[in-house]
Specification:
Order of helices and strands: HHEHEEEH
Structural class: alpha+beta
Strand order of the largest sheet: 2-1-3-4
CATH topology of the largest domain: hypothetical protein PF0899 fold
Distance between the termini: 116 Å
Helix content: over 70%
Number of strands: 4
């Protein structure tokens, strides 16, 4: 029995040794697989972090550009409002010129716009009553000084305009209203007005 026990003991020892070797190899392989997966996980994490960081930076830059663009639009809109307000103020100033200056203004406009010298000057109701006759006389005199024939007349009708005049001969009209003059000046004067307002 002693011999059988020795043989079985040796077989058991060899089997245990093989088991230990297989376990050791399995643990080594498991450690290697675990290390490989941990490295892949770290690499994947690092890549996701880099990608996420880059996307966040791009998003922040895009939002910054959008915010700057919106700020510029807001500033531009405010500047445009101020320019419009300046032109509105100019209209108010023209409407409230002292009578003598307003008559001279109307005479300049009529004299410059008259084509034949036989036009009618159409004003708004208040201006017609207040300075109509004076404006016609001043415009006629202004044209005569330049050697141009002038038989300008004050129209019997009026127009619902804010100020200025309309020259009319038959179906032909020349619009010299304050609104029209300021609208025409807008394009050419916007930059100059902006330069004065936003130095």
């Amino acid at each position: 029995m002693n011999g059988i026990e020795k043989i079985t003991g040796r077989i058991a020892a060899e089997a245990q040794s093989e088991i230990d070797e297989v376990l050791r190899q399995g643990e080594t392989l498991a450690a290697k697989v675990r290390a490989d997966f941990e490295k892949k996980a770290r690499d994947t994490y690092d890549e996701l972090l880099r990608t996420g960081t880059a996307e966040v930076e791009q998003d922040v830059q895009r939002q910054g550009r959008n915010a700057r663009l919106e700020a510029r639009k807001t500033v531009l809109a405010l500047k445009q409002e101020m320019i419009t307000a300046a032109f509105s103020r100019a209209l108010e100033k023209l409407q409230t010129l002292p009578e003598e200056e307003y008559v001279a203004f109307l005479a300049r406009q009529a004299g410059a716009a008259a084509l034949t010298g036989k036009e009618e000057i159409v004003l708004n109701e208040a201006d017609r009553a207040r300075v109509g006759a004076q404006a016609v006389a001043a415009a006629t005199a202004r044209m005569a000084e330049r050697g141009l024939p002038a038989e300008l007349k004050l129209a019997a009708d009026t127009r619902p305009i804010q100020g200025g005049l309309v020259l009319r001969q038959g179906d032909i009209e020349v619009n010299c209203t304050l609104d029209s003059l300021l609208d025409l000046s807008h394009g050419g004067l916007d930059a100059e007005v902006a330069g004065i307002l936003f130095r």
